[in-house]
Amino acid sequence: MRKLLLAVAAAALVLAPAVGQAQTPIVIKFSHVVANDTPKGKGALKFKELAEKYTDGKVKVEVYPNSTLYKDKEEIEALQLGSVQMLAPSTAKFAPLGVKEFEALDLPWLFKDDQTYANAMKGTVGKWLFQKLEAKGITGLAYWDNGFHMVSSNRPLIKPTDFQGLKFRISGSKVADQYFRLVGSIPQIMAFSEVYQALQTGVVDGCENTASNYLTQKFYEVQKDITVSYHAHLQYAVIVNSKFWSGLPPDIRTQLDKAMADATDYTNQIAHQENEDALVAIKKTGKTNLHYLTDADRKAWQEAMQPTYKWAKGRVGQEVLDLVAKELDVKMN
Ligand code: LMR
C-alpha cells in the first residue's frame, strides 16, 4: 500500500508541471483593424494556428479583427502599455510615435510588384526600419503584404485634375498627404473603422485602399467610381511589445519565430491573389464603376506626384531613401 501511495505521489509530481502549463497558457492578444477575410486577417489566423501547434498549446493566440479591441492609433498605444501583445498596423501608422522613416515605403510607384516589395523588406532597409521601433518598446517581427492602392470617389478619377478640391481620407502617412495635395485634393487622416460612414455621409469624398479592404469594408457601396491605379503600396509591420517578447521562455520564442516566419510566407504568397479575387468580387456587385488608367494617364499621375520624392527628403531623411534606393536598385528623385 505504502509503495502504491509513493508511486501515485511520484506520478503526481511528474504530471504536476505539465498540468499546470496546460492550464495557464501564455496568451498573445493579436489585434488588427481589417476583416478576417483579407491577407492580414488570414495571416493572423495562420499565425494563431501555427503558434498554438508549434508550442503544443503552451501559447494561446487570441485574434481580434475589425478594430474590435482598438482603433488605429489606440492599438499602438495599447501595445506599448502591454494591454495587447501583437499588432500588424500599416507602416503609415508609425508617425504618431515619432518614427517617420517608414513613410518612405508609401512613395508613389515605388515598388514594381508585390514580389519586389517582399524581397526588399527582407533586406537591410527592413531591418534598419525595425531598429527605429526598438527605442519605443516595440519589436518588429515581419513585414506583411497587402498589395497596391486603388483610389475612389463619386466621380471618375482619370486625369490628375479630377482630384481637384476633393477631400480624401488617408490612413496616416504624410507622404500620402503630399501626393494627394499635389493633385489638388485635400487629404484628411481618419481611423480605418470610420471610413465607411465618412464616405457615406460625405465627410470625405474619397479614399485609397486595396481591393481586399474595399470589398470587406464595403467601400464600393458608397463610392460610385474606383480607379484601379495601383499608385502606392500598402504594407504591414507585425510588431510585439518588446518587454513581453524578450520575457518569453527562449524555447517558446523560437517556436513563435518559426510560426511567424511560416505565417509571413503564407500571407505574402496569398496577398496578390486575394486582392485580384476581391477586385473580381467588387466588379460582380455592379455597385461601382471600375476604371483603368492608360499608359498616358499613368504617366500624367506620375509626373504630377513626382515632387513627393523631393519633398520626402525633408520628412523621412536621406538615409532611408538611400537604403530603399539601394535595395530596389532605383534612383530616388
Ligand atoms: C487603412 O487604415 O487604410 C489600412 O491601414 C487598413 C489596413 O489594411 O490595416
List descriptors.
D-Maltodextrin-Binding Protein, domain 2; 5-stranded mixed sheet; 2 domains; 49% helix; 333 residues; binds (2S)-2-hydroxybutanedioic acid; 6-stranded mixed sheet; single chain; alpha/beta
Structure notes:
By secondary structure, the protein is an alpha/beta fold. The protein folds into two domains: 2-103 and 113-146 and 235-271, Bacterial extracellular solute-binding protein, family 7 (D-Maltodextrin-Binding Protein, domain 2, 3-Layer(aba) Sandwich); 150-232 and 276-328, 3-Layer(aba) Sandwich (D-Maltodextrin-Binding Protein, domain 2). Helix content is 49%, strand content 17%. It contains 13 helices and eleven strands. It has helices spanning 2-23, 39-54, 72-81, 114-122, 124-134, 174-182, 195-201, 211-216, 242-246, 250-285, 295-305, 307-316, 318-328, and strands spanning 26-31, 59-64, 86-87, 138-148, 150-153, 167-170, 186-189, 206-209, 225-227, 233-241, 289-291. The strands form two sheets. The chain has a six-stranded mixed sheet with strand order 7-6-8-5-9-11. Strands 2-1-3-10-4 form a five-stranded mixed sheet, with helices on both faces. Strand 1 (26-31), helix 2 (39-54) and strand 2 form a beta-alpha-beta unit. The longest helix has 36 residues, at 250-285. Residues 33-34, 40, 90, 146, 171, 192, 209, 213, 234 line the site of (2S)-2-hydroxybutanedioic acid.
